[in-house]
Amino acid sequence: MYHLTIKTHFAAAHRLVNYQGDCENLHGHNWNVEVTVSARELDTAGLGIDFKILKRHTKELLGELDHKYLNDLPAFSQISPSSEQIAASSSTA
């Protein structure tokens, strides 16, 4: 099994719902993101995935979050945009 990881970041604002504390108020973060993909086999060039492709897909996904108010996004209309929920919703995209 081969594992490839890229690291990147995005910035966004949110407020936690049903949270008793300062994070219930509007605030922002700079999130660090690690994306890891696995491949069972390599292609004829010896790659599991081209880093350019992985970076492009990651940039597209994070473009939906970067510099946004996360609470307004459809993915968080029924759930609080906690770091855990952001990771869960992004892993299924």
Largest sheet: 2 strands, antiparallel
Q: What is the C-alpha radius of gyration, as a whole number of Å?
A: 16 Å
* N- and C-termini, Cα separation: 22 Å
Give the tally of β-strands.
2
Q: Which strand order does the major sheet show?
A: 1-2
- Compute the average pLDDT: 94
Q: Multimeric state of these chains?
A: single chain
Which consecutive residue ranges, at least 5 long each, have pLDDT under 50?
none
Shape: elongated
Question: SSE string, helix = H, strand = E?
Answer: EEHH
Class derived from helix and strand content: alpha+beta
Helix amount, in percent?
10-25%
Quote the beta fraction.
25-35%
Number of DSSP helices?
2
What does this structure look like?
The protein has 93 residues and is an alpha+beta fold. The chain has helices at 51-63, 83-91, and strands at 2-14, 27-39.
Key words describing this protein structure:
2 helices, two-stranded antiparallel sheet, 93 residues, 2 strands, alpha+beta
List the helices and strands and how they pair.
Blueprint: E1 2-14, E2 27-39, H1 51-63, H2 83-91
Antiparallel strand pairs: 1-2
